[in-house]
Structures are given as structure tokens and as C-alpha cells.
Amino acid sequence: MRRKLYLNYLYVVPALGFVLIFVYFPILMNFFNSLFSMSSYSDSKTFVGLDNYVRIFNDPIFYTAIKNNFLYAAFSLLFQVGLGLFLAILLEGRYVGKRIGTFFRNVLFIPSIISIPAVALLWYFIYNPQIGLLNGILDTVGMGAFKTAWLSNPKTAIYSVIAMSQWQYTGYIMILLVVAIQKIPRELYESAEIDGANEFQKAVHITIPSIRSMLVVTTIITVIGSFKLFSEIYIMTGGGPYNTTQVLGTYMYRSAFLFDEMGFGSAVAVIIFVITFLISIFQLKTFSRD
Amino acid sequence: MARKQLRIINKIWINAFFWLLMLLIIYPLFWMIQNSLKTSTELFINSFTFPEVAQFHNYTDAWNMGFSSFFLNSVLVTVVSVAFTVLFAALCAYALARLELRFRKVILYLIIGGLLLSPQSALISLYRIFDALNIYNTYLAMIVPYIAFRIPFSVFLMYGYFKEFPSDLEDAARIDGCSTSKIFFRIVMPISRPIIAATAIVSAIFTWNEFLFALVFIESEELVTIPVGLSRFRDALQTNWTGMMAGIVIASLPMIIAFLLMSKAFIRGLTAGSVKG
Question: Which residue of chain A has the CA closest to B147?
């Protein structure tokens, strides 16, 4: 029996080993490294205490970055969760036929399975001031006055990137909500119909309360996603113009790999870690409640 | 009568609204394909027209200028990462759900807890670790962290499944003298195909599309996967925009085709987990 128990651990070892060594350990090391000044080309490390953090909190670009992450989160909540919910309710309602509904659903989902770099590059072309789709359409509908170089105009750059993500991910969040709606027992609706409830009342009094936990989950993954933001910005603007589109991810990348300030970058990584960790705890709590 | 009219009006505007959204999703994709088949001059004159003659050589050019190797690298990295992720996660989830283990709870929490940790906060340390281990700029520098970061989620998915698995078959096999490993590989794995497929698909989407690790841990052009290849391609090609459009199409098509062929399995995997990118 003892021998058998020992063998059981062999099942767990590969997975646990990978997670401990390549997930937990680097993150712990990161906390430690954030207290040093160091570069990738030399082994020398200088202990600087909380200096890196002090520098971060005195850097205006850090505040631009974190503000952009929050802006991203706000718009993503509005479109991906808000509009996504609206679309999900319509798709599962009585006004959209079943087969055409599946078609709508699948098409809306497609952008989310294309890689972010591919979508970002496509939108980089769409926003191009000379050949771009957007300026072309504005011209066609007689709104040429609004034409601009979307990604190099500091006023429009971050919103242009945000808009691309809404295009890409609203369908994904919508599908999560559609699946939750499909699990609601039909009887709930039938008895409401007997009481004379209309579509709007059914949505407010039955659908939304019944999928509350999925709404919490989608809210949280949307917010976490906004703080993990990197590739979109890296490809479309590189953080520019004039750092107006920096987010925490690109701010960290820039410090560590462009300016070779590994300690400073680690401190930024710690801040990203703390924010995403706190939000994730929230998520796990909601998951385990169900 | 009024009620019926209202219903028809609702039906019309809601369906019109969805068709408008279809246009919003499909037209940019169509625009991309259209321009990927043009000559550069045609694109610069007007990006809305059809190509005079479809320039399929844009695709072969993109393929020959690097996409063939990006593509093979992506396939290799994805297949190896997904295979090991699924295997390790299945073994682990099975043991946690069905076998006698001391510290079962601790191990479970440690692994699922990995879900809370974002890849970005491990990036710089991993870079230094891989440098020290001499696997920086090798396939392993992608495969290893992809496996590590996909395991928590995969265990989470499979654990729930194995937990609910009826034990009759296992018991019968045990009475017949089957070893645990035989039960796992001959009985449990084959029956668990749906959850394995779902886990594999979610991991494959992640690995195929992953950008940050591939960007930082790989230097050589020959090892680069599609997402990073695409971004390097842009810097290298500068104004060959039609070729780049072809590149984006090549990068996006495999996942879209896979989705159209297996939309049910895709949706099952992605909704069971609710984790984005």
C-alpha cells in the first residue's frame, strides 16, 4: 500500500514541477529583483531598496499608462459586457430565428480567434491615413472633415486601439453570455409569459438575474484582460505618439528590454502582478461559489 | 393586432441591426482579402476596388519570404506544447480527482492558484532564467513557459470532469487486476475525449496566438512563430502592403477554418473556462 501511494505522486509531479518552477518561482524572483538595479549584459546587481518604486511613482508616463489601462477597462466593460449582453439577449430572444442566430453568433465570434497581432496589423491598415478603410468610408459618406491619421494623432490614438479590441472581443463575451442564457430553465419564461410579461420584462426580471454569476465572470476577465494589454499597443502604436498610448505592459517591456533597466521593469511587473492578482482572486471566488 | 405589428417591427429592426453588425465584422476581413490580391499601385490608387487581375503571387511571395518557416515553427511549437500540456494536466487532474494522495488539497490549490498569476509578471525573470539555462532563443524557450502557463487552466477544466466520472468502470478494471496507469491510459483517457479535445483546443488557440513570450525569448528569424513573424515582416517589408495583407490572411486562416469545422468544440472549450487570451 505504501509503495502504491508513492507511485500516485508521479502523476502529479510533471504538472506541479512545471508550475512551481516556471510560474511561481519567476514571480517570486521578480519581487526580489525589483529591489535591485541591474542590466541584462552584466551580472552585477546593486541593491537599491524601494528606489525603483519611487521612480515609477514619480514618472508621469506611469500615470499615463495606468490611466490608459483603466480607460481600456471602462470601454471594454461598456462594449464587451454591456453590448455583449444586449446582443446575447436579442440572439436568444424570439425575434431572431434559430439558424440565422447561429450564423450571427459564429460570425461575431470569429475575430476573437484570430491572433491579436494579425488583427492589430489589419487595423493598422484600416486606420492608415492614405489607403485606410476608415478614412475612405468617411470620404464616401461625406464626413471627410473627420479624417485624421488615427494612430499618430495623440487625441485619437488610444481610442483607435480601444475600438479595435471592441471589434475583436465583443463577440467572445457575447458567446459566454449566450451559453449562460441557454442554461436558464424554460419554465421560468413560460410562467412569466402566462403572467403577461413582455420581452423587456423577461430580460430584466429573469435573464439578467439568472446569469448574474456569468456577468461577474465576464466583467472580471474583461478587466483583467485590460491590465494584461500588450500586443495591441506594441503593434499599432508602440506606445506613441509621445507616449500617449503607453500601458503598463508596454511600459514594463520598454524599461526592461529597450532601456535595459531590468530592476525597474521588474518593479513595474510587480505592480501589474498585484493588480491582476487582486482581480483574479475575485474571479476564483465567484467561480467556486457556483 | 397592435401587438402583432409591434412584433413584426421588432423583428425587422433587430435583424437589420444584426446584419449591420455582420457588415461591420465581415467587411474589414473582405477588404483585407481584396487588397491582398492587388498590385501595390492598385492598392494606393483605391483600396476599395477589386483587383484587375488577382495577384495570387502575393501569397507565394509572403510564403517564400518567411511565412513558410513561421508557419512550421508555429505548428511545431503548438503541437508539442499542447501535447505535453494535455498529458501532464490529465495525469495531474486524474490523480487529484481519483487517487489517494496526501496534501491533495495543497497541490490542488497550488496548481489552480497559478490561474491568478499573469504571464507578464513572470516575463523578465523567465528571460533571465532561460538565459542562465542556455535555452534563450530556442524552441524550448517558448514551449516550456507555454506548458507551464497552460497547466493550471487545463487541470482546472479536467479536474471538474474527472471528479464527476462514474467509478464503476475503474473498479471493474481494478478487480480484473489492471494497474492504475493501465486504467488511466486504456480506460480514462479514451472516455474523456470531449474534455481532452476542449482542453487541447483552448491551449492550441493560446499557443498559436501567443505573442509576448515569443517576442522576448526568441531572437533568430528561423525560430520565430507567426504572430512575431508578422510583426517583424512589417518592419522588414515597409511598403509592400499587399504582401503584408496576404501575410495577415495566412496568419488568420488556420484558426478560422478550424473554428468553422469544429465550432461546437471551440465554444465548449472557451466557455467552460472563460479565460481570455
Answer: A18
Q: Which of B7, B123, B233, B235 to mutate to test the interface with A (most CBs of A within 10 A)?
A: B123
Question: Which one of A113, A114, A231 has the shortest CB-CB distance to B211?
Answer: A231
Using the beta-carbon criterion (under 8 Å), do A284 and B115 form an inter-chain contact?
yes
Residue B86 DSSP SS3: helix
Q: Does A25 contact chain B (CB < 8 Å)?
A: yes
Contact A96 B125 (CB under 8 A): no
> Which candidate from A18, A95, A228 shows the least CB-CB separation from B151?
A18
A237 in any annotated domain: yes
Print burial letters for A157-187: b (CB count within 10 Å at least 16), e (below 16).
bbebbbbbbbbbbbbbbbbbbbbbbeeeeee
Q: Is residue A39 part of a domain?
A: no
Contacts of A273 in chain B (CB under 8 A): 117-118, 120-121
Looking at the domain assignment, is residue A154 inside a domain? yes
d(CA A104, CA B218) in angstroms, rounded, equals 39
pLDDT digits (tens, 9 = 90+) for A198-249: 888 889 889 999 998 889 888 888 998 899 899 999 999 999 899 999 999 9
**What does the pLDDT look like over A95-138, one tens digit per residue?**
898 899 999 999 999 999 898 999 999 999 999 988 889 998 99
CB contacts of A124 in chain B (<8 Å) are: 234
Judged by CB atoms closer than 8 Å, whether chains meet at B28 and A126 is answered as yes
Grid coordinates belonging to A142: 461625406
| CATH number, domain B68-166+196-273 | 1.10.3720.10
Residues 226-245 of A with CB under 8 A from B: 227-228, 230-231, 234-235
Domain that holds residue A191: 61-289
CATH for A195 = 1.10.3720.10
Report chain A residues whose CB lies below 8 A from the CB of B225: none
How far is Cα of residue B24 from the mean position of the Cα atoms in its chain?
Answer: 24
Tell the residue number behind the cell numbers 476581413, with chain if given: B29
d(CA A274, CA A280): 10
Q: Which of A243, A235, A126, A164 is nearest to B234 (CA)?
A: A235
Question: How many domains are contained in chain A?
Answer: 1
Q: Where are the domains of chain B?
A: 2-36, 68-166+196-273
pTM of structure: 0.89
Chain B contact for A286 (CB, 8 A cutoff): no
Residue A171, in any domain of the structure: yes
The alpha carbon of residue B137 and the mean position of all alpha carbons in its chain are separated, in whole angstroms, by: 22
Assembly ipTM = 0.88
